[in-house]
Amino acid sequence: MLELRPTCENCNKPLPANSLEARICSYECTFCAYCVEKILDNVCPNCGGGFTPRPIRPSKNWKGDNYLGVDPASSKVKNRPVDVDAHKKFSADIKSIPPEKR
């Protein structure tokens, strides 16, 4: 199950469990929408993959104890600011390739 990390790895913006701004790659690297769009060009600095909106885990127990009360969001912050110049070099050749073809 997803960790639902609490902040953007780059700018450390809070991304609570119900945030519509949270974006994740397939390895669950977590960034805010602004960083993904304006800084990372939809290229994960850790794996080169693309991003998708992070799903929202239900806050109520609608069925089978599958909700935040039983499976809370992570409180562990992973703040790893991106070296923008290094990322530009890394992503230059792949940012034009659609994520599903990388």
List the helices and strands and how they pair.
Elements: E1 22-24, E2 30-32, H1 33-39, E3 52-53, H2 84-91
Antiparallel strand pairs: 1-2, 1-3
Explain how this protein is built.
The protein has 102 residues and is largely without helices or strands. The chain is built from two helices and three strands; from the N terminus they run ββαβα. It has helices at 33-39, 84-91, and strands at 22-24, 30-32, 52-53. It is elongated, with a radius of gyration of 15 Å.
Put the structure in a nutshell:
With 102 residues, the protein is mostly loops.
List keywords for this structure.
102 residues, little secondary structure, three-stranded antiparallel beta sheet, 2 helices, elongated
Compute the average pLDDT. Answer: 97
Low-confidence stretches: none
Q: N-to-C SSE series?
A: EEHEH
Number of helices: 2
